C-alpha cells in the first residue's frame, strides 16, 4: 500500500515504545474533580449549579449562549463544594466547579441512547455533538459542532480523521484505533452524515501498522471510507499537512480546511461522538498517556475530566528520581507545567515526565543563516525572519510575511543548530498581530 506524505517536516525520535503496547486502563475514580468552565477555544461557560448542589455523572454544569463554545458536564456524582478560580496547565486562571465524589457514580437521567445513526438527521447529530460538549481531542479543543458548521459559500466533500498521532511519546489515539475501531468508524460515519459527504479517510502513520490493520478490517464493508497509510514524519497530523498528504489539495494562505473542501477531526473525537450517540454519555472522560523516562510505570489511562495531574502521576508509579520537566501534551506542542496540581482537560492527551539528564540548558547563539528552519517549515514560512521581526516589534512586516499561517509545530526550533527559540518569538508576534486586529 502506497504511503503518502507532505513536503518538508522533521523526524524526531518518537519514543512511543514506552506505552504503544499498553492497553487503555480505567484510572481510579478521583475523590474530587476540578472542572474548569473553559475547556474550549471560544467563550467560557457560566455555571448551572451552585455550592451545595448534588450532581450526577453526565449532568450539564456549565453552558454558554455563544455559538463558539461547548457545554461542560460533571464527570462524577457528588456534591458541589466550591465554584472558584483555579489554575490550569497553561498557567492561566479560570472559573471551575469543584465536586466531591459520593462514590456512587450515579448517572444523570439525560444520559441515554440518542437513536440509530440511520434514523438521525445531520442536524440532529450536530446538536447531539454540541450538547455532549465535544471538542477537538487532539489538543486544540475547538468545538466540534462549530467545525461541522461549514461557512456560507464553501463546499465540503471530504472528511478526514487524523490518526497520525505524530507527536513523540503519545499513544492514546493509537490505542483507541486498536481497541475501539468500530466506534471510530461509527463516529466518522456520523461526521460524514452531518456534512452530507460520501468520502471519508482515516490517515495513520506507518509506525502504527497494527492500527492500520485494525482500521482496514473495521472498514472492509464501508466502500466510502479509505484508510491511508502516511509516512512517519512530524507534523503529519497537522490539518493542512494531512489534507495535502491524503487528497493532494492545498489549504490557501489564511484559509480554512473547508477552502480545500475538507473537514478534519481526530480519531479520539470520533470515538467520543460514537459514545455520545450510542450511549448518550457526554464528554466526561478521555484517554491520557502518562509516560517518559521520569515515570516509574508509563501507561495509558482512561481519565475522568477534572482529575488532577499529580494524582495520575501517582497512579503511574510516581516519579523515577528527580523530574527534569513535566509537559502536558507531547514534547513538540505541549506545555511545560510549573504546577502539577492542575486538572486534566478535554484536550489533555498526555503527561510527559523527562528526567533531569534529558533536559538540556543552553544559551541561544547568533543565527548562522543555515536556513534549516526554512527547509523544514511545513507551511513554507521563513521562521528566522519572522522571529527577528517579532523581537523588534515589526508587526506590519510579520503580517505581510503571513505569520498567522504558522501552525506552531515547533519544527523550526527543533532543527535550529544555534538553539534559537524561534517558535517562542513567533508565538509572541502572532499574539500581538491578533491583538492589533481586534482593536481595528
UniProtKB/TrEMBL annotation:
BP GO terms, sorted: electron transport chain
MF-aspect GO terms: 4 iron, 4 sulfur cluster binding; electron transfer activity; metal ion binding
EC number: 7.-.-.-
Entry keyword Membrane: yes
The record's free-text note on cofactor binding: Binds 2 [4Fe-4S] clusters per subunit.
Alphabetical list of SUPFAM superfamilies matching this protein: alpha-helical ferredoxin (SSF46548), Nqo1 FMN-binding domain-like (SSF142019)
Limits of the 4Fe-4S ferredoxin-type domain: 355-387, 394-426
GO cellular component, one term: plasma membrane
Cofactor: [4Fe-4S] cluster
Pfam families per UniProt: Complex1_51K, Fer4_10, RnfC_N, SLBB
Keywords: 4Fe-4S, Cell membrane, Electron transport, Iron, Iron-sulfur, Membrane, Metal-binding, Repeat, Translocase, Transport
Chief subcellular location: membrane
Entry binding sites for [4Fe-4S] cluster 2: 377, 406, 409, 412
Cell compartments where the protein resides: Cell membrane
InterPro entries in the cross-refs: 4Fe4S_Fe-S-bd, 4Fe4S_Fe_S_CS, Ion_transpt_RnfC/RsxC, Nuo51_FMN-bd, Nuo51_FMN-bd_sf, RnfC_N, Soluble_ligand-bd
Residue numbers binding [4Fe-4S] cluster 1: 367, 370, 373, 416
Membrane topology field: Peripheral membrane protein
Protein role: Part of a membrane-bound complex that couples electron transfer with translocation of ions across the membrane.
Oligomer status and interactors: The complex is composed of six subunits: RnfA, RnfB, RnfC, RnfD, RnfE and RnfG.
Family named by the database record: Belongs to the 4Fe4S bacterial-type ferredoxin family. RnfC subfamily.
Protein name: Ion-translocating oxidoreductase complex subunit C
Native source organism of the sequence: Anoxybacter fermentans
